[in-house]
Structures are given as structure tokens and as C-alpha cells.
Amino acid sequence: MASAANQGPSLRRSTPDAADAGGVRSVQRAMEIMSLLTEHRPSVTIREIVEQTGLAKTTAIRLVQTLEQNGLLWATSHGYTAGPGLWRWAHLAHRSWEVPADTRQLMRELAATHRETVNLYMTRDIYRVCVAQEESPQALRHVVRVGDELPMWAGASSKILLRDAPEALLGRIAATAPGGASHVATLREWIDDAALKGYATSAGEREPGLSAVAVPIGGRSVPVVAALCLSGPTLRFTPERIETFVEALRDAAARLAEKGFDHPLAG
After folding, report:
1. In terms of Cα–Cα distance, which of 133, 106, 121, 108 is closest to 160?
2. Which residue in 30, 132, 156, 185 has its CB near the most CB atoms, within 10 A?
3. Complete domains list, the chain, with CATH
4. How many CA atoms lie within 13 A of 136 on its CB side?
5. Are 231 and 124 in contact (CB under 8 A)?
6. pLDDT digits (tens, 9 = 90+) for 164-198
7. Rounded to two decimals, what is the model's pTM?
8. pLDDT, tens digit, for every residue of 241-257?
């Protein structure tokens, strides 16, 4: 009896932990199923889910049924596609993450005047996230999708965003670079140079033939909250045009900072 009493509290403590672990696994598995849906694969079958995730068929069916009941998946004759319940979340995300109309207009003017793609990047851990873009009107142009996470080990905007970055973060970023840990020294050199000049450039660092110019957008309490960038084919980024780009970007960034740049990633 004494032994059973001693075991009781231990068993009661472990039960919620086990349930939590099971719940986390279920959520992770559900997210894996949802992530199978892409622009190029708008629907998936149970067979594809099993093959791609390695889940048992019974587990896959149970999770799909739960997702369908909550409107996150929708059954069609071709399989399961994104459900109508996602519309509400998409609307909320759009309202929360969309940059203000005046910021969008300013980016649109930059793209129209200088005929190169305008990107607005912010930091998320070891990545830079494109939070807004206005495409170049030219046929040959550089385009990334809003929401894309790009590596921070190269690129004009990375050199801007990494100002005042701790060594630990630089080390983690360098670990993802082609050159490995030794890339930290190069990163620090780039960052210091960008801080001194007030802008950064890149040419073929991540993608051959691609160049960019970036400047910082200051926040209320930090010197850099975002990077405003013009990018395009290297052959169009002559020294004369780069000088013009820097002047235009600085003016636009100052206007954005004066109005008070606000975004969820800035928090």
C-alpha cells in the first residue's frame, strides 16, 4: 500500500505530460499534411499523404477527417484540397502582415521610376523575410514571393539587417553558408562596411547575375527595423545607377521612418 501511494503522484504528473506530447505530435502531423498542399499540388489523396508523411493509413485518415471537420481540408473527387475555413485565417493574416497603403505606394513609385524590383525585408531568426514587394516593369527582373524566407549569409539586405547582431547569431547564420563557420569573418566585414556607408550592395553573392542595393529603415528604438532594397540583373547595376539607387532608397527609407514603420516582425 505504501509503495502504491508513493507511485501515485508520479503517475499523475506523467499523465498530462504524455497527453501533451501526444497532442503536439498530432498537431505536427496535421501540419505536415497541410504542408503537402502547394500551388503546383492543390490537392492530395490519402495514398499520397501516407507515402509522403510515412503515417499509418488509419492515422492519416483520422487526421484528415479532423482537419475536414474544422474546415481546413475539403474533400473533392481528386482528393483533399484547402478548405474554406482557411479563408478566415488568411484574411486575418493579410490584415496583420500587409504593409500600410502609403508604404506600398512609395514602393510602387520606386519600382516605376527606377524600373527595378523593390523589396522590403525583415529579420526572423537566421532568415530574412520578404514582407512586401513591387516588381520591376521590365521583362528581365528579380522576383521573390512575399513571405519567402531567404538565407542571411549573403545579400545586400542581410548586411543591413545584421547590424548589431550578436556573434552567436552570426555563427548560426555562417553555419548555413557554403563556406561554413569561417564565413563569420566575412559577414562581420560586410556588416561593418554597410554600417559605415549607410547602405549595402551585393553582386552575385547568392545567385549569379543578381545584384541589389539596400538601405536601413530605422525604428523608434532600434537603428534598423527593416531593409529597403532594389534588385535586378547585375548588368543593369552600373556604378552610376547604384549611386542613383542609394539616393532614392535613402529618401524613401527616411520618409517611412518618419511616419513610424510598424509591422508584426518588428515587435
Report:
1. 121
2. 156
3. 2-86 (1.10.10.10), 98-266 (3.30.450.40)
4. 18
5. no
6. 999 999 999 999 999 899 999 999 999 999 999 99
7. 0.72
8. 999 999 999 999 999 88
